[in-house]
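Changelog note: in this version the structure field was regenerated for every chain. One regenerated record is shown below for reference.
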Amino acid sequence: MAEPDDAVADRAEQSIDRIGSFVHAVEIFAAAVFAVLFAIGVGDLVLQIVRATMTGAITDPLVVIGFIDTGLLLLIIVEVYQTVIAYVEESNTSRIVVLVTYTGVIAMVRKIITFRTSEYATVADALLAASAYTLVLLGLVGLLWVYRSSDGDDIL
């Protein structure tokens, strides 16, 4: 007969295994949700382009910037999907950090491309936002450079 402490340890290990299995299933579900969101987004982008072409709005630079914004959002969804898959596959932490950093770079590039000073109350507010975006982007690029210049070349 097992010692009482051994029985408690066995039950705790079984509970931890069940919880781990549940978390793994939720991770897989999250990956599926992001895949569906990506597919819907691609379909929506195609419809937007077709509509803009048919109405002649395709020549409007703001409309084209809207397409770029949507495309970059789709890339962010793909990067988040890849991050979730890295968790599911239990990839090393360095790979996950690089994926999250790429997601951040894409998000900041998206913010910069769609940046409009008219969206801010004052020029000073717009300058502050632009400076913050630039600082975050430079920080993310610097982080990627550090990974690439170290032994992180084989991370992805």
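Spot check on this record: DSSP finds four helices and no strands in the chain. The CA atoms of residues 2 and 8 lie 10 Å apart.
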